Amino acid sequence: xxxxxxxxxxxxxxxxxxxxxxxxxxxxxxxxxxxxxxxxxxxxxxxxxxxxxxxxxxxxxxxxxxxxxxxxxxxxxxxxxxxxxxxxxxxxxxxxxxxxxxxxxxxxxxxxxxxxxxxxxxxxxxxxxxxxxxxxxxxxxxxxxxxxxxxxxxxxxxxxxxxxxxxxxxxxxxxxxxxxxxxxxxxxxxxxxxxxxxxxxxxxxxxxxxxxxxxxxxxxxxxxxxxxxxxxxxxxxxxxxxxxxxxxxxxxxxxxxxxxxxxxxxxxxxx
Length: 271
What we know:
By secondary structure, the protein is of the alpha+beta class. It has helices at residues 3-24, 28-32, 37-53, 58-73, 103-109, 118-126, 141-148, 181-198, 212-222, 227-234, 238-252, 257-266; strands spanning 77-84, 87-95, 130-133, 153-161, 164-173. The protein folds into 2 domains: 3-205, Beta-Lactamase (2-Layer Sandwich); 212-266, Orthogonal Bundle (Arc Repressor Mutant, subunit A), CATH 1.10.10. It is built from 12 helices and 5 strands.
């Protein structure tokens, strides 16, 4: 085991100890969440420790993790992105005040980002915490949707393990938080701890929110093929196609096939 791996394991052990302390004092996060930046950062470390200690599955675990980080650092939304090949894919989304599948959420959950593309892609490429503000020139469509919903700024940081990016965490705010040197160091430490935890769980991070198969089925539907025709084309049963349709409805915020196809076309998933 190299020196960097040993440091990561040590940081993970420290977080597990913090988790034990947090369980003995369940109100610790509430006490530490204040307007003081240093106390917010401490609260963030405790929130991560609590989320990892209470891990009971990938979906609930990731949502609890994003909620703890977001609430402790006073952000209102969070996304966990996972590298797959040469793209980042969204794996989990959290919002403090969910009001249905808004445009920002839908565009986020159907995005595929190259290294350097948008804020998460920059954090992935640069291997360090990164900030994007409303004042940045030529914001991408996803960020313009965020601005329309009242968000102002965002930060992203890589989740690292042994020089490998396991994931990227993006946090979005309605305020204008500063990415100070101290906060950046805290996020690097948190990214190392999460990397140590998630490195052994990469298999459970594989499933994207909207799958390539669902995109393929929506593309065939856009060509006018029926459910039976799509099943024959793909060599699967009509019931399997129906299940993919229904899952894509929920993930795209659509009520039926036509709405799902229209949304997929609007988002550029289907041409």
